[in-house]
Automatic annotation (TrEMBL):
Residues 80-131 form the Secretin/TonB short N-terminal domain. This is TonB-dependent siderophore receptor. Residues 1-44 form the signal peptide. It is a multi-pass membrane protein. It holds the Pfam family TonB_dep_Rec_b-barrel. Keywords: Cell outer membrane, Ion transport, Iron, Iron transport, Membrane, Receptor, Signal, TonB box, Transmembrane, Transmembrane beta strand, Transport. Belongs to the TonB-dependent receptor family.
Amino acid sequence: MFHRPTHSRSATAACRPRFTPRPLVLAAHLLAAASIGWATTASAQATPPTQASAAQQRSYNIPAGPLNTVLTHFLAESGLLLSGSTTLAQGKTSPGVQGSHTPAAALAALLAGTGLTATPDAQGRYALQPAAPAPTANTSGAATLKEVTVTAGAERSGTTEGTGSYAASSTNTATKLHLTPRETPQTVTVVTSQQMQDFGMTSVDDALQAVNGAFVAAQGNNGAQYFSRGFEMQSQYDGVPNPGGISNNNRNPQIDNAFLDRVETVQGAAGLLTGAGQPGGTINLVRKRPTEAFQALAEMQLASWDGRRIVGDISAPLTESGRIRGRVVAVADNSKSFVDYVYRNRRAIYAVAETDLTATTTLEASVQYQRDTGRNHLGAPFAADGSEPGIRRSFFWGDAGQRTVKDYTLTTLGLTQRLAGDWQAKATFSHNRTDSDISRYSYARGELDVTTGDGLVLGRQRSLTQDLSANAADVYVSGPFQWFGRKHEAAFGLNGSTMRHTYTGAGYIPRLPINVNTFDPSALDDIPGATPYFGDTKTTQLGAYGVARWSVTDALKLITGVRVSNYKDENLLTKRTSSEENGVISPYAGLIYDLNAQVSVYASYSDIFTPQTRKTAAGGTVKPVVGANYEAGIKGELLDKRLNVSAAVFRLEQTNLARRDESIVPDPANACGGTCYIAADKVVSQGIDLGASGEIATGWNVAAGYTYMDSQYASGARNGERYGPQLPRHSLRLSTAYKLPNTGWTLGGNVSARSKIYRNDTSWDTGKPYTVRSGGLVLVGLMARYEIDPKAELMLAVSNLFDRTYRANLENKYYSPFGEPRKLTANLRYRF
C-alpha cells in the first residue's frame, strides 16, 4: 500500500501559484462577441423587469425566432414568472410579438402556433404546457380530436438547469427506467443546478456534503471517500460505470461542478446496474447537455484565502436547422488554503456535441479535461493519548517543496436510436485516464508528547507516479409494452468496465524526527532516492441486467429486476488473479402503491456483492460479501409536483464477511498460504431517512433531511459492538433560499449538523489501541443574491458562520484534517 500525498502553500512569492487568466479573458471577449451576434434580432429597447400584473400594457418589439430565445427576451422585458420544461419549447419557432399588449396577451401571442400555452396560478405565475387539441370533424360528422404528440422533455430527462428549483422531476440512476422520485422505491437525493448555484458549490464534494445521510471523508486535495448507511459508495457518469471513482484514494482530481447539471445519489445497495461494489449506494454525475437555443454565461468568483475562479459556458445550435448542437464549459480556478503552504490551481474544459443523424438517431460525443496542480496536506496529528494537542488549524505538517499534478481526461461517445412504440436503444462508451505525479511526499506520524513537542517523525518519499486508465460501456433498450390489457415498462442491457492501475514509488527514506515547536516545512532538504516499489493491477467487470415495471393495477406497481455479473481482479506483475467471480446473481424488487395522485407507499429489496481475496481451506477465495438493503417508506409529490417529500426505514445487512477458520492451523505450506478463512461474519446497519426538496411557496426553495443510522457487528467476537463509529449516527441537512417579491433579492442559509464521531485503532509504532474523537457539530451558512438586472446577479455567501473548529474526518491519530474555518465567497454571474 502507498500513502496519500500532500500539497501546500509556498512561503515565498516565487513559490506562490500565479493566476494568469488571459485565456479566459479572451474567451469572455469571444463569448461577448458571439452574444452580440445572436442578440441582434432582439429589441434594443429592453427594460429591466418588474413583477408585472396582467393588466399593465407596454410596447414589445420581439421578432420571430426559436421559441426558447423569444421567451428569454420576453420574460426579461415583461417581468412575468414562467415555470415549466424549457425542453417543451425546443425545436419550436415563435412568431414573436410586436405592439402594445398586456404581458398575458403578449405571452399568448408569441406562443401562437407553437402547440403550447401558458396558464397562471393563484399567485400569478405562469406554467408552460401543451395546448389542448382543437376539435375536428370526421367523415360521420362527429367531433374528434386532432392527434397530438407530446414529448416529456426535461421532465423525462431529469434536466434541472433552468428550472430554478431544488426538486428533481425524474431519475433513472436506480433502474434505467425514467421514474419520478416518488415512483422510485429507494431513497434518492438530487442536488440540482439551482441548489449548487445558490450556495457556491464548486466541486462534487461540496454537493455531496449537502446530501443528507451521505458523509464525505475529506482528505484535502488527495480526494475523499464517500459513505452512506455505514458503507462506501461507487460512482457513475451519466449512468455509465465510473470504475476509477470521483477522487477516491488519491487517484483522480476532485471533479468540478461547472460541468454538471445535477448530482444524483441512490442510497443503499445498488447492484442492479453496478455489479460488484460497496453497499452504501451510487453517486451519478449527470453532465450538462447542449441546448437547442443559444445561451451563454460568464462567472467570476472571489473567496477567502485568495480564491479566484472564472467560468465560461456557451451552448448553441451549430447549424441553422439545429440538427447539430454544441456546448463548451471552461474553468480557471486558483485557490490557496487556510493551511499554510497549501494551494490548488485548476484548469478544466468540457466540450460536448450532439448530432441528429436522422429524425430518430442522435450521436453525441464529449471530452472533459481537468488538470489540478497543487500542494496537499493530509491533516494534523492528535496527541499520543488521542486527545487534541491544541495546535493551530493552519499549521502545515509536511514538506514545503511538495507538488502534486493530476491530469484527468474523460472521453465519451454515445448513440441513441428511437424505435417504434416509444422504445429506444442507447449505447455509450467512455474512456478516462488520470496521470498523476507526486514529488517530495511527506507525512507526520508518531506518538506526540504535547509537553515537549517531541515524538513525531516524517515519513518521506521522493516521488510517486500513477497511471489510472479505465474503459466503460453501457448498452440498453427501454420502452413500454402491453400485456393482459395493461401498459408496462422494461429495460434490458449490458454494461461493463476495465480499469488498469499502475504506479511507481521511489521508496521511503528513514524517518526524520521533528519537534512540533521548532519544525519548519521550508527548511527540509530534497529527498534522496530509495528502493522503488511498483504496482500494476487490472479489474474487469461485465454484467447483463433486465428490469420491468409492472402495472398490476392503476394504483399498484411492481418493479422486478436481476443482474448476472462476472468479475476479475488481477495482479499483472505477479500474473496472479486476486479474486474472480462468475455468474453472480443480484436481484431487485420494489412494490409501490399510490394512496392518491400525490402520495405513495413502497417497499424494496436490492443488493450488491463485493469480492474477497482471503483464501479458504480448499484453496479458493471466500465467497463474496453480499450487502442486502431492505427499505420501506412513503413518498409524496406535493404542491403541483413542486415539492418532493419522503420518509423511509432501512435495514442493510452485510453478510459473508471473512472470519479466520479456527479449525485450520496456520501453515505457509497449506492451500491458503498461511491462515485460512470462512464466510461467517455479519454487519447490520439500520435507521431512518427523512427528506424534502423543492418549492414550498412561490420563490421559496428548500432541501432538508434527517438521517439516523446505527451500524453494529452482528456476529463473532465483536457481536453488538458499533461498526464504523467514525461515521455519525445522526445527521441533518437544511438549505433554503427565498426570493423576496419585487426586490431582486434572494436570501437564504444552510445548516449542517451531525452527532459525535470517534475512531478506534492500533498505533503503528507501539501496537497499543487508541481512540480519537470529534464532538457533535453544527455548521451554519448564509447566502444573499441580488439581481442587478435580468442578465446579471451577484451572490454573497459565508460558510461556517460561527467559525467552529472541528475535524472534518478521523483518518487516524497521525493525520486527520481540520474542517474549513469561516469562509467568504462573492460570485458574479452574467448571462448573455
